[in-house]
Design brief:
With 199 residues, the chain is mainly β.
Amino acid sequence: MHKLARKFAVVAAAGGFALGLTATSASAGAQATWTVAPGGAITAHADVPTLTVPAATLTCDGSDATGSVKSGSGLNGAGIGQIDSLTFDNCGLAGISFEVTASGTPWAINVSGVNSGDPDRVDGTITGITAHIEGTGCSADFSGDVTGYFDNATSELVVDGGGDLTASNANCLGLINDGDVASFEAAYAVTPGQTITLD
């Protein structure tokens, strides 16, 4: 995952930086295994990640993550990688500046199948996400999982807005409420470039 060093919008990335990739018939079985190259430690960076709830959108200038992916072949798709840290830079919502803090890492990166519409993409999820946002007169926690894919052609970990990232402990002038399901979108460029393929 490229470097994620800014304040939030792709929660957190890379986080979990997280991916529970959707499976084709060839990979739907529990025995599907994967090859990752080169694997190892990664950094990731995303420009302008966003977190959208029904009443508002939190936008950050950027996000940076660190983590790792497994290396070799015959790998299980669950926990094929992890996000160890995720940061967000210069985040704001409705004119209010926000700090975004990721916690509970590592978050798991999971893959489950080759995308049916693009063979370069491996569908997946980032699971175990927890994060806190804090601004003047507004705070909330978010937890859950997000969906997305890893693009072998661009070495990007893309969070596509799906999943069940849910707000709790919200005190935010009605802009964010308990039970709101957030849509997180970000494209993390991963360094060094990785390739994830079905065995």
